[in-house]
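Memo to structure team: turn this sequence into structure tokens by end of day. - J.P.
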Amino acid sequence: MSIRTLVRGGLVITAADEVHADVLIEDGRVAALAAHGSAAAEAWTADRTIDASGKYVIPGGVDAHTHMELPFGGTSASDTFETGTRAAAWGGTTTIVDFAVQSVGHSLREGLDTWYAKADGNCAVDYAFHMILSDVNEGTLKEMDLLVGEGVTSFKLFMAYPGVFYSDDGQILRAMQRGASNGGLIMMHAENGIAIDVLVEQALARGETDPRHHGEVRKVLLEAEATHRAIQLARVAGAPLYVVHVSAEEAVAELAAARDKGLPVFGETCPQYLFLSTDNLEEPDFQGAKYVCSTPLRPREHQAALWRGLRTNDLQVVSTDHCPFCFRGQKELGRGDFSKIPNGLPGVENRMDLLHQAVLDGHISRRRWIEIACATPARMFGLYPQKGTIAPGSDADIVLYDPHAEQVISAETHHMNVDYSAYEGKRITGRVDTVLSRGELVIDQREFTGRAGHGAFIPRSTCQYL
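Reply from structure team:
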């Protein structure tokens, strides 16, 4: 039996509108919206009424870049699909798009099936997959067509990590050409990994082993160069391009220049680049290891360019690149050698709150908050309007958000399976109160009422942003 739910009295905010409206939910979907107090809304009856007075009613967040249970650097990301999706729900995110990994010498199908098995029956909220290509050859190029057919419509390649994920320019071009023909969107980790490896070797030879050197060797110019090269390869292939975790002013400039030419080039940044900096990497007593991720944190002056890119739409999406490793026993693997620190930060629970704080700080508008965190990621990856908005027919993924509640971010109170917070002690205003996923209460007034296995795999159509 499906429960008919009425969300009454809140300010409904989507990427397009802000309106005081009541939302009627039936069979897991939004059935109707009507102005609060209108005759239509007053006539509705429901099995359950949720009072949203004084709160925002927003679409559930879509985090298009997570790594649950990712094997990396001799260890594995500390969040499982169960713990990671539960933390996502606590943070107002109701859909994640995670990365299935093809291992070198193996098929895409093997990699994808491995990730289906990890996630199936374990997720508290809905999920989809991108595919990481580690081994581009005739066989895997053909497999790309099959994956697009089953709703895995984006493929990530790496210009970094030689010997692990790295693809050379020829492999990248071939994958882009295939994407141009089958509709798959190519996602790029844009850093010149070959040059970076030289700089790592030289730094270690000089005895420069601390976490801060991770940021120093992964130079801004090597991100910009790789971004430029990826754009030119995409132009040659006639393919759209999505650059992940853009961290620096120079890389934003490359994207902006391409977009000014009318090219279908898109960029994502992450909260860590907007709120953290090399100051964190320099924290003493190896504490800087907590902040090692790639692309690395940059000097604070790059933040203004990232915020500007989000306002001008040269950057379209904020995802987390959530890939947590505990400080004890995992990050510590790199004591005495920064290149052995597992790369990644926790953040899936913090994104919606940090971006709301950015609204209060004057960086973005309320509707832009919803656009970069919900609507555009859904459009970019073929999930809209099922996800990313509140409209008749959309999945009832709805968050009641209290814009006045104050909180202090801390590892003591977060729900991610990691022993530190990248934002420890940060005071912010705004907090998730209640979360519905396909009409089911997952968080009810700050109490978790969801369950592993509620979350469903969502096949995606191709990019809707072209």
